[in-house]
Design brief:
Helix content is 28%, strand content 27%. The chain has ten helices and 22 strands. With 395 residues, it is of the alpha/beta class. The radius of gyration is 21 Å and the shape is globular. The strands form five sheets. Strands 1, 2, 3, 4, 5, 20, 21 and 22 form an eight-stranded mixed β-sheet that branches.
Length: 395
C-alpha cells in the first residue's frame, strides 16, 4: 500500500456528505484533491482498464477529516513541551484517530514559553510529518479569570495587555488563529475589538462574566465560547451567565468536549437543540495522557492523575483537559446524545473549517476540496486517514 499516493479511488463506501449519505459511493482523488464523487454503478464504466490505485472501503463510513481547534497534547507529549518532536508526535497520534487538522493550544504560562511554542508550531507546520496538519495556534490564556482557572496555572494569569498580545501575534505572523479570554477583566473589551479587527477568533472562556458582560463581549466581536459549560459561570435561574448568553446568541459558536465527563449527555443534547449543528464544534481538549494508560502526568507544571481515563489535578481535583480523541467524540455524540452521524461529522469538520476560514478547501467531502478523509468501521473506529490525498494511517 503506497501511503503517499495522491491519485487514487476509494470505492464501495458510505459517503457522509453535508446533507446526505451516499451509499455504495466512490471518491476519485487526483493530486490530493477530490475530483469526482459518484455511485457504485458508474464506477466500472469510468475506471475500468485504467491504471489507478483503488481502495475498497468495504461498505464502511467515509467522513471528512476532523479539525480539532483545541488540543493540548497526546501520546505522552504536550504542546507546552515546546519541541518539534512533541508537536509532531501529537500530530501523528491524533491523525490515527481521524484528525486531519488542528490548532496546538497553549496553556497560561510565561510569555517566553508562549514565544517558544509559537516558533516551534510555525516551523512544524511547514513540514510533512505524517500527522494532522497544523493550521495555526490557539492561545488559551493568559488573559483569563483567576476565579475560573480550572486546570490553568494561576501563577501566570495576567490582565489583558495589548502590548503582550501585539508581541505574540507579531512573532506568530498571522499564525495565531484563536485567543481565549475572560471578557469581564479590565481592558478585555478593547483587546476583543482589536483581535476581531485582525481576523482572529475571540473565544470566551475561563471566565466568571455575567450574562450582560458576556453580551457586551459578543457585541465587541467575541463570537466563540471555549469548552461550553466548563470553566465559566454557569446557568442560574436569576443569572444566566456566560452559558445562557452563548446558547441564546445565534452567532456564537460553542465548543463542546464530548467525552461524557466534562458535559453530561443530556446537557450536550440541550446545547445541540439550542444551537443546532451549525453553531457547535466538537473538540477534545486532549492533554498528554490521551492514548496512554492511567497514571501520573503533567499539564504544564501542574500534576495530573488519570484514573479510568479521566484526568484531574492532584490538587483541587479540577478536570485537567481530557483523554478524548475525535473519533470517540463522534461515537459519543451518536450513541450517547443520539444525533445523526452527518451532524456529528459536520460539527467535527465542517464547522471548524468554516470558523478558520478554510471552508473553500476543507471540512466536507465535495468536488474541488482537499482529500482529507477518514474511514470508520461499523463501530465508528478509524480504519484509515488521508490528508491531502496522502495516507497517514491504516489500521
Amino acid at each position: 500500500m503506497d501511503r503517499t499516493t495522491a491519485t487514487f479511488v476509494i470505492r464501495n463506501g458510505r459517503l457522509v456528505l453535508e446533507d446526505s449519505i451516499c451509499e455504495g459511493g466512490y471518491i476519485y482523488v487526483e493530486q490530493g484533491v477530490i475530483r469526482e464523487i459518484g455511485h457504485g454503478e458508474s464506477f466500472s464504466r469510468k475506471f475500468a482498464g485504467r491504471s489507478i490505485t483503488v481502495f475498497d472501503a468495504n461498505d464502511q463510513w467515509i467522513l471528512p477529516g476532523f479539525i480539532d481547534i483545541h488540543i493540548h497534547g497526546g501520546d505522552g507529549y504536550e504542546v507546552m513541551d515546546g519541541t518539534i518532536h512533541a508537536i509532531e508526535a501529537i500530530s501523528r497520534f491524533h491523525a490515527r484517530h481521524g484528525t486531519t487538522g488542528w490548532l496546538p493550544t497553549t496553556l497560561t504560562a510565561q510569555i517566553a514559553d508562549l514565544d517558544r511554542v509559537i516558533h516551534v508550531a510555525k516551523r512544524s507546520a511547514c513540514r510533512f510529518h505524517g500527522g494532522a496538519q497544523i493550521l495555526g495556534i490557539h492561545l488559551e490564556g493568559p488573559f483569563i479569570s483567576p476565579k475560573r482557572c480550572g486546570a490553568q496555572n494561576p501563577e501566570f494569569v495576567i490582565p489583558p495587555s495589548m502590548d503582550i498580545l501585539k508581541h505574540l501575534t507579531s512573532i506568530a505572523e498571522g499564525f495565531v488563529k484563536k485567543v481565549t479570554i475572560a471578557p469581564e477583566l479590565e481592558g478585555a473589551l478593547d483587546v476583543i475589538c482589536w483581535l476581531t479587527e485582525q481576523g482572529i477568533i475571540v473565544s470566551l472562556g475561563h471566565t466568571d462574566a455575567t450574562f450582560q458582560q458576556t453580551l457586551d463581549a459578543i457585541a465587541a466581536g467575541a463570537l466563540h465560547a471555549t469548552h461550553l459549560f466548563n470553566a465559566m459561570r454557569g446557568l442560574h435561574h436569576r443569572e444566566g451567565g456566560v452559558v445562557a448568553a452563548a446558547l441564546l446568541t445565534d452567532d456564537v459558536v460553542c465548543e463542546m468536549i464530548a467525552d461524557g465527563h466534562h458535559v453530561s449527555p443530556e446537557m450536550m443534547r440541550l446545547a445541540y437543540r439550542l444551537k443546532g449543528r451549525d453553531n457547535l464544534v466538537l473538540i477534545t481538549d486532549a492533554m498528554a495522557a490521551a492514548g496512554k494508560a492511567d497514571g501520573n502526568y503533567k499539564l504544564g507544571a501542574l500534576d495530573v492523575i488519570v484514573q479510568d481515563g479521566v484526568a484531574v489535578l492532584k490538587e483541587g481535583n479540577h478536570l485537567a483537559g481530557s483523554t478524548l480523541t475525535m473519533d470517540e467524540a463522534i461515537r459519543n455524540m451518536v450513541r450517547k446524545v443520539g444525533i445523526d452521524l452527518r451532524d456529528a461529522a459536520y460539527m467535527a469538520a465542517t464547522v471548524p473549517a468554516r470558523e478558520l476560514g478554510l471552508a473553500h478547501t476543507q471540512g466536507s467531502i465535495a468536488v474541488g476540496k482537499r482529500a482529507d478523509l477518514v474511514v470508520l468501521d461499523e463501530g465508528l473506529h478509524v480504519v484509515a486517514t488521508w490528508i491531502a490525498g496522502r495516507q497517514v494511517f491504516a489500521r
